Amino acid sequence: xxxxxxxxxxxxxxxxxxxxxxxxxxxxxxxxxxxxxxxxxxxxxxxxxxxxxxxxxxxxxxxxxxxxxxxxxxxxxxxxxxxxxxxxxxxxxxxxxxxxxxxxxxxxxxxxxxxxxxxxxxxxxxxxxxxxxxxxxxxxxxxxxxxxxxxxxxxxxxxxxxxxxxxxxxxxxxxxxxxxxxxxxxxxxxxxxxxxxxxxxxxxxxxxxxxxxxxxxxxxxxxxxxxxxxxxxxxxxxxxxxxxx
Length: 245
Prior knowledge:
- This protein is α+β, with helices and mostly antiparallel strands.
- The protein has two domains: about 15-145, 2,3-Dihydroxybiphenyl 1,2-Dioxygenase, domain 1 (Roll); about 155-245, 2,3-Dihydroxybiphenyl 1,2-Dioxygenase, domain 1 (Roll).
- The chain has five helices and twelve strands.
- It has helices spanning about 30-40, 105-110, 165, 170-175, 235-240, and strands at about 20-25, 45-50, 55-60, 65-70, 90-100, 115-120, 125-130, 135-140, 160, 185, 190-195, 200-205.
- The strands form two sheets. An eight-stranded mixed β-sheet has the order 2-3-4-1-5-8-7-6, covered by helices on one side.
- The mean pLDDT is about 95.
- One of its GO terms (molecular function) is dioxygenase activity.
- Keywords: Dioxygenase, Lyase, Oxidoreductase.
- InterPro entries: cNMP-bd_dom, Extradiol_RC_dioxygenase, Glyas_Bleomycin-R_OHBP_Dase, Glyas_Fos-R_dOase_dom, VOC_core.
- This is Lyase/dioxygenase.
């Protein structure tokens, strides 16, 4: 999950033309751990069962809608931050809830071109899924009410992963669906194609390769600021304005 730390950005409105809530997977039996941990952070939680899976629904400190869902298929994470063991650690992004201006068109694209299958429907939400353990779920709300407005507390786009050798194959598929797209853009650690589907939601198709371990080891990931070559000359300026974590 990528965050854009734009200083002075106004608060957005979650709604049509956006991804809404983001779901994270955790091992079965760990929900009580996360409930206690998140409540200590001052967050207001709602315990809810979605499509037979127990979860915690909440907004983060900038009103970004999130959920932590128990997932028996998620396995266990190799990451064990302080105070979190492999029995509780988040194993990945389970999926997202989409608020589309045209829900049926969004569902059609995902099922006919992206390989998702409709597996369930409840409370005006259609669940689409693939066999992928991470990112294998997309929920589409059939009757979203508000119009989405970008800003903090909202999701900018949804990224789908692909192998580098297969990325170019997506360009004609996007074109066949009459969706304007970007060219293939080099992000140094991956390459990307962006397009906006008919429901107004911005999608990205990004490659796994070359990956984030081209200039650091697994153990070093996330321990220092990494910049692409063309931004290296601005390192001090960027460092000075980054928020403290």
